[in-house]
Design a protein that fits this description.
Structural class: alpha+beta
Shape: globular
Distance between the termini: 31 Å
Low-confidence stretches: none
Mean pLDDT: 84
Strand order of the largest sheet: 3-2-1-4
Largest sheet: 4 strands, mixed
Radius of gyration: 18 Å
Number of helices: 9
Strand content: 5-15%
Length: 191
């Protein structure tokens, strides 16, 4: 994660950009600093104001530069209005916004992003989020139920794999607004 951070910041340093209303935010496993070789490097370019031509050119050149140096990032570009209407966001995008970390840009824009995630994504639709997570686990259990018997089990999506850990982590974060799993022990959900 640190190498990716340093590479992204070095790429950004070559641009003259006014960060008014724009923040670069790490998402998902990259934000949690849980990366393996070839892990996705997911970033969000969040903007609070309409992008002008100079901002659009910067974003295009920045993304091209990341690809040119071999990062191959997953990039989302979202505005305040796009995040404030959660019905526009599918479950995968909502999930990706649960884990985030500031990389560069406007602190005010980042704080606005945090408010939106708390008010429109984490605090609304908790029940639907939990049902979706339970259904995800059930579907993965059906698909990978015999993966422990295989020579090369799927450690990401298989039973007891990384996605199961992530699911427990996400439920904790949404229900208790906390990223410490010990909270689930205190709440007598885990023992």
């Amino acid at each position: 994660s640190k190498l990716s951070d340093d590479t992204i910041k070095a790429a950004l340093s070559s641009f003259e950009i006014a960060w008014d209303g724009i923040a670069i935010i790490a998402l998902g496993g990259y934000a949690r600093k849980e990366m393996c070789p070839y892990s996705d490097i997911d970033i969000l370019i969040f903007h609070t104001d309409e992008l002008n031509r100079k901002d659009e050119d910067f974003i295009q050149l920045f993304i091209s530069r990341l690809w040119d140096i071999g990062l191959a990032p997953g990039v989302q570009i979202k505005s305040v209005s796009e995040l404030c209407v959660p019905s526009y966001l599918d479950e995968i995008v909502k999930n990706s916004l649960i884990d985030y970390r500031f990389l560069e840009g406007s602190i005010k824009a980042f704080e606005r992003f945090e408010e939106i995630v708390a008010n429109y994504i984490l605090n609304r639709g908790k029940y639907n989020f939990l049902i979706t997570k339970i259904n995800d686990v059930r579907n993965r259990m059906k698909k990978y139920r015999d993966s422990m018997l295989k020579i090369e089990p799927n450690i990401k999506d298989g039973i007891g794999g990384i996605r199961d850990y992530n699911g427990v982590y996400w439920v904790n974060k949404v229900l208790y607004d906390n990223d410490k799993l010990v909270t689930l022990v205190h709440e007598k959900i885990l023992s």
